[in-house]
Fold this sequence. Notes:
By secondary structure, this protein is an alpha/beta fold.
Amino acid sequence: MRKDKKKEQEFNRGIHKGEFQFSYSSLNKLMFSPSLFYKDYILKDREVRTDKHLIQGKLIHLLLLQPEEFDNQFVLMPSKLPSDSLRKVLNQISLNSKVTELSLVDDAAILKALKEIGLYQSLKDEAKRVAKVRTTECEDYYAFSHHKGVDVIDQDIFTKCTESVELIKENKSVMDLLSDEPTDFEMDGLEVYNEAPLSCDLDKYKFGLKGIIDRYVVDHDKKEIRIIDVKTTGKTIADFPETVEFYNYWLQAAVYVTLVSKNITKKEENYKINFNFIVIDKYNQIYNFPVSINTMNTWGDGFMSILEMANFHIEENNYDLPYQFLQEKKVIL
């Protein structure tokens, strides 16, 4: 693993100033690959992900919870979106060039990006490799990708995500969770927050937490807080409990509960907190998975252990191996 003492010192200074906040994704990355965490958050050499399934998940969230923000976060291109691999190549070219038209990019820059991504290297003819990139779809994507701060989608993605959102809206049990909206009446006891960016300090640690909560509702009449996280999955709803473990979504739930708990008023400290996963699977089946209080408490205990793990890596400045492999010798029995 490439090390950089200067960037380590810069990161550690931020830690001691209380400037670094863990998100679910950064904590999760530190759990399974501290060296990748080091690359992404200390060296700040993080790959921008443009995978189609990630964009679709983001778009479904937005169309469901903040449709008015579509033009600020997405741009719809007229032709079909290139493959994930080609988009990585085009993004790599864009990083190395200020040219906003693919037709003005020379062949050498395209060949270099193809080599860095490892795409079409089995083609011996360089002209054939370049031709794979010089297409109408790639030219359109390259031009639209220069719109900073937005994701590029095509009509197929937009239609698919719109259909998913319409199915969600037809699901009564799900919409019972999502239809809570405050009224103009003074006596209304609801506060609704969509795509809410929250952050907090942690008493025992020099680092904090941050995250964007899909939706949470503070119900003063019922004295409860409902946290809702919308998930898209390439598996089925029957597989979702295992998916929670595989992707450590339990950790995300614990992070979100902590963030909401630390951002409520003193009056709301005794409110009951309910957590729900709304899941859209690969067959567009929709299901609401409530999390029991006992399970949430178990996840909270696991979260405390993860914070101790994170603190160890930071205090020891050791990102060579996952925490458990640094603590004791592992033996295959």
